[in-house]
Fold:
Amino acid sequence: MPEINVGQLKVDSAPDGERFVMHMTGTAELKDSTPLAELLLKADGEVRALGLTQVDVDVRAVEFMNSSALNAFVRWFAGMKERGGGYTVRFLSDPSKRWQRSSLNALATFATGTVTVVTQ
Amino acid sequence: MADHVLIDLRLLPRWELVGELRRLVSQSLEKLSLDADDAYGASLAAHELLENAVKYGQGEVRVTVHLDRREKKLRGVSVENRTTRSHAARLKRALKALSSAPDRMAAYVALMGRGPGGLGLARIAAEAEMQVTCTARANRVAVIARPQGAAHA
Structure:
């Protein structure tokens, strides 16, 4: 997938060996979660088509996400559960960015068993 | 009592101002060497509450940030705007449910599964560990987020 801008959030994603890697940078201050949710759904389709078992979402360079952006991830993880899983998701996080410590852990709790948070 | 109003703004309900407000609150509190968790809580509350006011309110929005300057502690963030009675009633119900939840993080995560409504308020309560209340008079509503244990601003 080419680099895509969702508002001030840039998303660059591609398969990398056995994984699918999404690099996100910028700020996710979304009025509506739909554009990001659609992008994540498209990535889900690509991951399934390639038969990959892990997705790394690198948000270390994301300064902030509002609740609408978090909701896009909630929609992704809820959809994964409905489709019977198939792969796991790792958030690569920077704990010095305060929002990442609390918001990513909340998402991991919502999708326990599917989503983990890794600090790098 | 060393209550101090750090920020008192009247804003147009413009989406572009939401992120700008968060940055202003965050930078202002960092310059005052406020506790990092307090600074994050204030900026998160300012962002999510102004976002709600822009989405669901009407007309000018008043944003205030109160500090205890002597103690270098946040006292609260308040966002006030005009709204409909039905929205004020929904807001009160949501905040009542949130304040009565025994575990705010569990309530926040449960709310994630029920759709986007109210996620911002639950996020303030759970992630920033703040108490969120509201007062409604006539056609105006003020939503106030305070750190746990802070006196009323």
Observations:
- The helical segments of chain A are 34-50, 67-82, 98-110.
- Chain A has one domain: 4-119.
- Chain A has a mean pLDDT of 94.
- The longest strand of chain A covers residues 54-65.
